[in-house]
Structures are given as C-alpha cells and as structure tokens.
Request: fold
Amino acid sequence: MSRHDFGNEVNNMRVDRRTFIKGCTMAAAALGLSETMVPKLVAAATSAQRPPVVWLHFQECTGCTESLLRASHPDIGRLILDIISLDYHETVMAAAGHQAEQVLQETINKYNGKFICVVEGGIPTKDGGIYCKIGGRTAVDILADVAPKAAAVIAIGTCASFGGIQAAKPNPTGAVGVRDLVKGTPIINIPGCPPNPISFLGTVLHYLTFKRLPRTDQLGRPLFAYGREIHDQCERRAHFDEGRFVEQFGDEAHRQGFCLYKVGCKGPGTFSNCPAVRFNGVGAWPVGVGHGCVGCTEPEFWDTMTPFYERLPGVTIPGGGEGIVTGATSVGMKILGVTAAAVGIHAAVGIGKRVVKCKKCNKTPDEQE
Amino acid sequence: MRYQQNLAWSVLLRLFHWSFALSVVVLVTTGFYIHFPWTNTMLEGGRSFPVATMFYIHFIAAFVFTAALLARLYLLLFGNRQERFWDFLPITPKNIVNLFKTIANYLYISDKYDRRLGHNTLAGIFYLVTFILGLVQVLSGFYMLYPENVVWQTWGLRLLGPMQQARYLHYLIMWYFIFFAFVHLYIVVWSDIWHKEGLISSIVNGRKYTPDKS
Ligand code: HEM
Ligand code: HEM
Ligand code: SF4
Ligand code: SF4
Reply:
C-alpha cells in the first residue's frame, strides 16, 4: 500500500491523520517494531472490518477505562475507539438496562469466536459469586458465558489480571483474576493500576496486524511492555549504583533527584515499561517526579509491596494475631539476642559443671566413663 | 590415654566447607549492605560505585556458594561413608538413638557422648536444613539476578511467588544463615573442648581422634 492510499483512508477516520499516525508510531515504538512497520499497523487499524469488542466490568473502580479514554491523552482514547468497534461497554454505551443486556447477547452470538473480550475488574468467587452481579447474573456466570465465545480475552488492569485490591488479604469476596477462571481462550494480561494506555493499544494493534497476541512472560503479560524490570530502565539508576540515596522525602538528596530505593521504591522486582513509555503524553512517570514505584503491575502487590515506603514487608508475629507486625530486621536481631543469651547460659552451665565435677579430678567428664 | 586417628572428611568436603563458609560470610556482609546501603555518597561526580561493587561481590560469592552446594550434593550421594546423607539423618534406628543421646549430652543431662566418625544426628539435621535453605537462596537469588530468564522466572514463580516475595524470603533466610554461623561456631568450639576428638582441626586436615579402648 502506498503512502497516498492509506493517507486517504486515514482522512476518513474521526481522529485527524496526524494523530492517527502518531498513535500508531507510538504503539510501534512500544512494541519494538521498526518504523517501516508503521504503514502495516495503520493498514490493519483502518481495515473495514473493525473487530467487535465486548468490555466487561466487574469488581473495579473504572480507573482503567478512565485512564484509557480520558486523562490528558484524549487522542489515544479516541484512536482506540476508532480502531475497535466497542459494542458493549457499560461506562460509555448509550443503551441501558435490558437493552444493554440484549446488545451483549446479540454481539456474542453474532460474532461468536471473533470478538475480543476485555475484562476490567476482579471476579468474586466466594458464596456463589454474589458479591458482584450485573443484570441479575454473577460476574462468574457472565464471564463463563462470554469468554469461551471470544477470540481472545484481554484482562486490563491488575484486578482483572491477578485480582487486584479486592484480592488483597484477607480477600473477603474470594476475588480472582480472569486467568484463574477462564481456560481454553487465549488470555493476555495488561496489569497496572491503571495500566498505560499505550500497552493496551500496542496489544490491540499487534493482534490486528499479526492476527495473534504478542508474546508474553510467565504471568501472561506482553513482553514488549512487561519484559524488563523498572529498575533496569530507570533514569535514577546511576544514583543507585553510585550509592546516592534519598533518605527522606523532601531532603536535599530528594531535591537532587537521587535514587528512591531507601524510601521504598519497588522498581527492583516490578516489570513494566513506565520509564520508557511514561504517562499522559507529558513525559512523566512516578519515579521521574520523585515518588518510588509501588509495583502496581505485580500479582499480590497490595500484600507484598506494602508498606509502600519501606523496602520489604514486616513480619507477622505468629500467635500475635494479625495486629502484631514488626520489621524483619528487628525480628532477626531479637532472635539473635535470644540465641546469644541461650549460648551464654549453656556455656556458663558447662563451666559450672566442670568446676564442680572436676574438683576431684582433672579429667574431662567424657573420660570418666 | 591413647588416641586412634581416622580419616573422616575427604578433600572435596573440606574444600566445600571452607568455600561455603567464606562465601556465606561475604554474602551476609554484602547482602546486609544491599538491603540497607548505609553509606550515602551525596557527592556527585564520584566514581566509586559502592552499591554496584557490593552487588558485584555478592554475585561472585553467590557463584562460589552455588558451586559449593553442588559439590555437597554430589558428596551427599557419592561421597565417603560419613559424607552420605544416610550416615547423619534420623532415618536409621541407630541414628535416631544417636539423636537423643546427643541432645542429652548437649544439655548436660548425660555425660556419655555417642561418638561417631562423621556428624552426629543433631548436627546432621541442622546441616540438612542449611543445605535446603541454601538451595532456596540460590533459586531466589538467580530469580532476581536474571529477571528476564524464562527458566528462573518459571521456577521462581512456581516455588516462591512474585519477585518481591522472593526478595523477602531471600532477606529472611539471611538471618537464618547468621543464626546458623553463630550457633555452629559455638557448638564446634564447645564440642572441641568437651569431646576431645580434634573436631576443629578435622575440618582442616580431615582426621578425627577417638580414644583407643583396646
Ligand atoms: C572458623 C569458622 C568455622 C569452623 C572452625 C568450622 C568448623 C566446622 C567443623 C569442625 C565441622 C564438622 C562438624 C561435625 O562433624 O559435625 C563443620 C561442618 C560444617 N560447617 Fe563449619 N566451621 C566454621 C564456619 C562455618 C560457617 C561460617 C559456615 C556457614 C554458615 C559453616 C558451615 C558448615 C556446614 C554446612 C557444615 C557441615 C558440613 C557437611 O555438610 O558435612 N561453617 N564446620
Ligand atoms: C547464604 C546465601 C545468601 C545470603 C545470606 C544473601 C543475602 C542477601 C540479602 C540480605 C540481600 C538483600 C535483600 C533485600 O533486602 O533486598 C540479597 C540480595 C540479592 N542476592 Fe543474595 N544472598 C545469598 C545468596 C545469593 C545467591 C546464591 C544469589 C544468586 C545469584 C544471590 C543473589 C542476590 C541478588 C540478585 C540480590 C539482589 C536483589 C535485588 O535486586 O534487590 N544471593 N542477598
Ligand atoms: S529510583 Fe527505584 S527504580 Fe530507580 S534506580 Fe532507584 S530503586 Fe531502582
Ligand atoms: S512506576 Fe511502578 S507503581 Fe507506578 S505505574 Fe509504573 S509499575 Fe505501577
């Protein structure tokens, strides 16, 4: 296809051509594709047959949708809406009530095996799944109805991917992610709280262009976006290696832009492209503006990454109930203290015993057999 | 009193012991620093790279540690009689009896020490726990060292959970190693004094002494 051809097609789209090409170029860059692939992405994105998408909302805050469609990146949001045909999405669709449910049924039957199912939010499984119902049906039922008919499921956000905040201990509703319930349909996880719209866009464009989902890591996250640790791409890494650390928010080191490791940055251990792709089209990301990464793309991050301003979680004292938690270092020190005391007593008893027994002899007890 | 001299430990076991012991000391020291880099350079334009250097030393020691564990694994199966797991784990009636006798002796309840050429069963259990936790350190360590490697990712996730969980375990187990080194040194010295078998030198020259009853 020549440049002239797709230029015309793009002109018919609702976003202007410049934005459209820009969006596709950003996605290509995120995907690690060369510039020469951009026309292919554009061609796939502008093909007459826009893939129907069913967007399911379960236990969530709608933050993923908000960040995708609103934020200060309206162009990307509109671009996505132009590329896909969003047939069912509770937040943005015009239909409501029975009408909406009817649209859902029609879409999944009409495009059986062809539509993309996007899931936002965790799925509660406890007590028959009653903690999340839409139109009288539980989230578990809706997912079991829709997912097997989809060509692929995209779990957007950490909740849909791994359960998210409602799956944090003690997980009162038994919330799980899509991958725990759906088997047989290809699933891709785009975790993050919320995830970067570019990662979602890249996944969709990859699917449209190459007719398959991008390669993933062991947690089902696309490698192009979640293949490397934040810590290995961070602009403050030189400060880390040099041992220049922020000790306290607002101190001189913080003003100098030093590494946030000691104030709890979870960049080591978190996989995402935040340092490279950044957010909201203004080149910003959390660590860049002085706040540590909280590890929002990782499973169980509410449990394992908290306290957010400390390096590691505290140790729960067994028998002390949920309430007694202290730092791992202080637990280690205490155990060593008790050990030292025990060793001291043991040695003292030994010496005492020797003094008493060997008054009569100068043999060791062992030799008196 | 006359003593009989017997070879207890092969050269490979002694090599294992000292490379293991030295690497643990280095790993704990550098690990502590990695956990809490207490120096703060503050000065820009320096070229000392303290944290990067500590990591580097940690990784070199980690490879020595891993090699030592592999050597011990080989000896557990193919070493001499004292070195095989059969000799010092509470899996034979003789060893179980030895376990109780040893505990009684260590607590000064009994003066009799059930001598053996190899480890006593109490020590054996302690060493096995150390060996297994050493393997956990290796798995969690390599999982963190090669975050993009599929093999470590698969097994790390399966056995330890998300990476932050592995980091947490890695840190907690460091405390076990400090505890072990401390108790180990005390018991070795204590036993060397009380049991007179030349225990400490045995881990250097391989030979232990037993009172000659004949
Ligand atoms: C100068 C310090 C040390 C001395 C004198 C020493 C001495 C000994 C001796 C005498 C034994 C044999 C004990 C027996 O028969 O039960 C032994 C075994 C052992 N030591 Fe040490 N040790 C030292 C430091 C360490 C350290 C720092 C570690 C690691 C944390 C360590 C780990 C071990 C292990 C794992 C064994 C069992 C060997 C086996 O697998 O068969 N040692 N040590
Ligand atoms: C007895 C053995 C070991 C001890 C006591 C030890 C101790 C530690 C400690 C305390 C930390 C800091 C953890 C934190 O607070 O984040 C650490 C970090 C680390 N250790 Fe070890 N370690 C041991 C063995 C190993 C081995 C065998 C490897 C294998 C390569 C390894 C690789 C690492 C790595 C990669 C880190 C960096 C974690 C990060 O990215 O923050 N360690 N170690
Ligand atoms: S700020 Fe965080 S991600 Fe960046 S180098 Fe420091 S610890 Fe790593
Ligand atoms: S920097 Fe960390 S916490 Fe922030 S969005 Fe990226 S992965 Fe999530």
About this structure: Residues A 192, 230, 270, 272, 274, 285-287, 293-297 surround iron/sulfur cluster (ligand 4) (CB under 6 Å). Chain A is about 40% helix and 10% strand. Confidence is low (pLDDT under 50) at residues 1-13 of chain A. The domain at 3-226 of chain A is CATH 3.40.50.700 (Rossmann fold).
